[in-house]
Design a protein that fits this description.
Blueprint (H helix, E strand, L loop, with lengths): L2 H14 L7 H15 L7 H10 L6 H12 L2 H24 L7
Length: 106
Amino acid sequence: TDKRIIANWMFWNGAESILEYLTTEMRRRKDEYTFAISGTMKKRQRWQTCIKALISEDLSLKTAVSAMYVRKYFDKRTKRNVMDITAALRREMEKMLNVWSWPGIS
C-alpha cells in the first residue's frame, strides 16, 4: 500500500475521533460525512458530547470525576472503610496468586 494512503488513513482516524469536540462547523461536517458513508444521521447535542467525554474510558476523565464526587459527598469514615476493604481484597488476591501454579513457572 502506498505510504501516502497509509498516512492519510492514520491522519483521518486521529482527526475523526476529536471532531465532535471542535467547532459547530467541524461537527456539522463530521455529521455530513457520517451520513454520506452510513446513511444515518447521529446528531448529538453539545451537552451530550460533554457528558460522553466525562464518562468515556478513552478520555480517562471518569476516574477524575469520580474522585471529585467522592471528595465532596463521602465522609472520612466511609472512605477509610472502603480503603480497608480494598486493602483486604488485595492481600487475599496476592495470597491466591502465590499459591496458584503457573504454566512455565517453577
